[in-house]
Specification:
Length: 321
């Protein structure tokens, strides 16, 4: 059975990666480009399993477990981190530690240097070393340039960059990668993924599926974020504030109850909510468009690390009709 058998809805990616192995034309670097939540990281795991299988002395199941637990000596899995009291933390570690995340995590220069150190030695068990970089678009210019030097002479290794698209990366990085496209799933494929991953109950919530737009990972994330909102706050944000006092109060509630990263999700949710027919029956199409534009500006400010409460105060005050 092919390692890619569990990957649903990405036939083009499976075809390209399978051909690379069977024809022994493995590229030094790949760019897994496409929307989040459609199987890019899972495809990377399947590809690593395929690359490591020929020389493996352990059973197939043992090899798969080691790869998926990310404890194989020839696999380095890199993900964006937070910096807290001088220590790098992954998203899961930051959540477990109860740390309030004020800015999105990023791939840091120190992590790129660790990649260089990892690749400076030969593979211990597998035919080659593999490095996977999740959310490669979070690299600033300095780490991106450092990674570029590594890509110029990777040795007997393969790097897999996972990103939303090539436009978010340095063109020189993209030019050194073979692009593997990933796409949003069809309704049937989306249903199959949610059923096989134990999230079939989400199929009973059409608004969540509409918001996910063919991404099972996004559907799950939207549902989890929605569950974190209290019913009172959900009711409050479902419509624009009617007065300046209400706008200021709502901004305070959002800032206190929702972490900055989840506030970005809230913007997606509100844009989708406001755009639905009959969601705001008293508002004209022009008013709705203006509100969507205000929310998009709020997203930009949050991404620029502007004070979240101030962003929401300004945004909601301008929404008052």
């Amino acid at each position: 059975m092919s390692p890619f058998s569990p990957l649903i809805g990405q036939p083009r990616a499976v075809e390209l990666l399978t051909q690379a192995v069977t024809q022994q034309r493995i590229a030094p670097a790949y760019l897994f480009a496409g929307p989040p939540g459609v199987g890019r990281s899972f495809a990377a795991l399947c590809f690593v399993e395929y690359l490591f299988s020929p020389q493996g002395s352990r059973s197939a199941q043992s090899l798969q477990n080691r790869i998926r637990q990310r404890n194989h000596p020839d696999l380095l899995w890199v993900e964006p981190t937070y910096l807290h009291q001088g220590k790098r933390l992954s998203t899961a570690e930051a959540i477990a530690a109860g740390i309030k995340r004020k800015t999105p995590p990023v791939i840091r220069l120190e992590q790129i240097r660790e990649i260089s150190q990892f690749l400076s030695r030969s593979a211990l068990e597998a035919p080659r070393s593999v490095v996977v970089l999740e959310h490669a678009e979070t690299m600033a210019e300095a780490p991106a340039n450092a990674l570029l030097k590594t890509l110029e002479e990777p040795g007997q290794a393969t790097l897999i960059l996972i990103a939303n698209g090539s436009e978010s990366l340095l063109p020189t990085l993209v030019s050194r990668c073979q692009r593997i496209p990933f796409f949003r799933l069809s309704p049937d494929a989306l249903t199959q993924v949610l059923q096989t991953t134990g999230h079939a109950d989400l199929l009973q919530h059409p608004p969540i599926l509409q918001l996910a737009q063919g991404s099972p990972g996004e559907a799950i994330a939207h549902w989890q974020n929605l569950q974190e909102l209290s019913p009172e706050l959900l009711q409050s944000v479902s419509q624009p504030p009617r007065s300046h006092r209400e706008a200021l109060s709502l901004a305070r509630q959002i800032n206190q109850a929702i972490a900055p990263e989840s506030q970005l999700w809230l913007i997606d949710f509100l844009q989708h909510r406001y755009w639905q027919p009959h969601a705001l029956p008293s508002h004209s199409l022009k008013q709705t468009v203006v509100q969507l534009q205000l929310l998009e500006k709020a997203r930009d400010y949050l991404l620029q690390n502007v004070n979240p409460r101030l962003v929401w105060e300004v945004t909601l005050m301008k929404m008052v009709s």
